[in-house]
Amino acid sequence: MTNLGIGLIGYAFMGAAHSQAWRSAPRFFDLPLNPEMTVLCGRTPDAVAAAAAKLGWQETETDWRKLLGRDDIQLIDVCTPGDSHAEIAIAALEAGKHVLCEKPLANTVEEAEAMTAAAEAAAARGIRSMVGFTYRRVPAIGLARQLVADGRLGTIRHVRAQYLQDWIADPEAPLSWRLDKEKAGSGALGDIGAHIIDLTQYITGDRIAEVSGQLETFVKERPVAAEHSGLAGTAGAERGPVTVDDAAVFLAKFGSGALGVFEATRFATGRKNAIRIEINGSLGSLAFDFEDMNLLHFYDGGEDAATAGFRRILATESAHPYVGAWWPPGHLLGYEHGFTHQVVDLVTAIADGADPTPSFADGLRVQRVLAAVEASSTSRQWQEIPQ
Ligand code: SOE
């Protein structure tokens, strides 16, 4: 089988999640190409060597540009903070490498536009790209999209979406790149709000047309981290400013006329990774919560009124997307499986000569919504999303 050499840039939380995906995808799925975990790249030699040994990479590199000249690397996986996505992804596409880029696609609309243009030019040369909105690959989310596409909800009226975390609710939780606008572009809005923007558009097959939003930074100054890894760190003596939003809320109107209410926060004490989506249509409703991610709740308004009610569907059967490759029916999947499904779909699209989704154009669409929410929070006006 033909090898697909992978060069992964970044080895913190997302780098580890992607490594796990590259490792397990060929072991559970029949892939048309063989992903080789060729090089792990990061700036600090000792740390990248330790991560490569732990995560299963063959070699290490400290300069990502060196990966682009290697014939044994066909795909660059970008798991760096948002401020380097555009530079790395565009250079990789121009060098003829397929690209998987973490979300949000970029820090600004301008960067996302340049990345989308590069992706479209590369696609004409058979080079593929995908943005990592991994929650699309949760089986219950796939089922939700299918139910909407099959017309089981009728006309969509309401979209209610929340992404709730609490990892910086403590005002003494230290600063990290996710709290730095230069590095991350925005705070809760781009980091987790981007996921629910993408998910609701994916499930409904609709697009957000206009928004009215508010951003808030509750804790404006925090300890600088003495050390930091993933989402956790230890506080040093110095203090520094938080330059992003802690929470974002917005109202949305979809192209079809459906109304949306969105909330993304890192201050929802007790909520750890709660992606809650509820969709009401003229014929029925759906409800999902990632903290119980194997379940989809479905209300079929056509059922007998005496016994109708939300049905609890365990999306763990081989009839559900991706599930058949894993365990016998009824055995649950977790956070990391979405990352594995993501690379399965990417590798399959590369082998088929097809454009994978979510594309960079899909990432740009989300970026435009993020920018519009920010603009609305500043101007206190509704903002239209350029389509
Ligand atoms: C932190 O909020 C974070 O790691 C996000 O960056 C990821 O996209 C999400 O999957 C989990 O939470």
Offer a concise description of the structure.
The protein has helices spanning 13-28, 45-55, 64-68, 85-94, 109-123, 139-149, 181-184, 188-204, 335-352, 360-379; strands at residues 3-9, 34-41, 59-61, 75-78, 98-102, 129-132, 156-164, 208-216, 221-229, 232-241, 247-254, 259-265, 274-281, 284-289, 295-300, 311-314, 383-384. The protein has 387 residues and is of the alpha/beta class. The chain binds alpha-L-sorbopyranose (SOE).
Write structural notes for this entry.
- This protein has 387 residues and is an alpha/beta fold.
- The protein folds into 2 domains: 130 residues, Rossmann fold, CATH 3.40.50.720; 195 residues, Dihydrodipicolinate Reductase, domain 2 (2-Layer Sandwich), CATH 3.30.360.
- The strands form 3 sheets. Strands 16-15-14-13-7-12-11-8-17 form a 9-stranded mixed beta sheet. The protein has a 6-stranded parallel beta sheet with strand order 3-2-1-4-5-6, sandwiched between helices. The protein has a two-stranded antiparallel ribbon with strand order 9-10.
- The mean pLDDT is 97.
- The chain binds alpha-L-sorbopyranose (SOE).
SSE map:
Blueprint: E1 3-9, H1 13-28, E2 34-41, H2 45-55, E3 59-61, H3 64-68, E4 75-78, H4 85-94, E5 98-102, H5 109-123, E6 129-132, H6 139-149, E7 156-164, H7 181-184, H8 188-204, E8 208-216, E9 221-229, E10 232-241, E11 247-254, E12 259-265, E13 274-281, E14 284-289, E15 295-300, E16 311-314, H9 335-352, H10 360-379, E17 383-384
Parallel strand pairs: 1-2, 1-4, 2-3, 4-5, 5-6, 7-12
Antiparallel strand pairs: 7-13, 8-11, 8-17, 9-10, 11-12, 13-14, 14-15, 15-16
Helix pairs in contact: 1-9, 4-5, 5-10, 6-8, 8-10
GO molecular function: nucleotide binding; oxidoreductase activity
Domain Gfo/Idh/MocA-like oxidoreductase N-terminal: 5-123
Keywords: Oxidoreductase
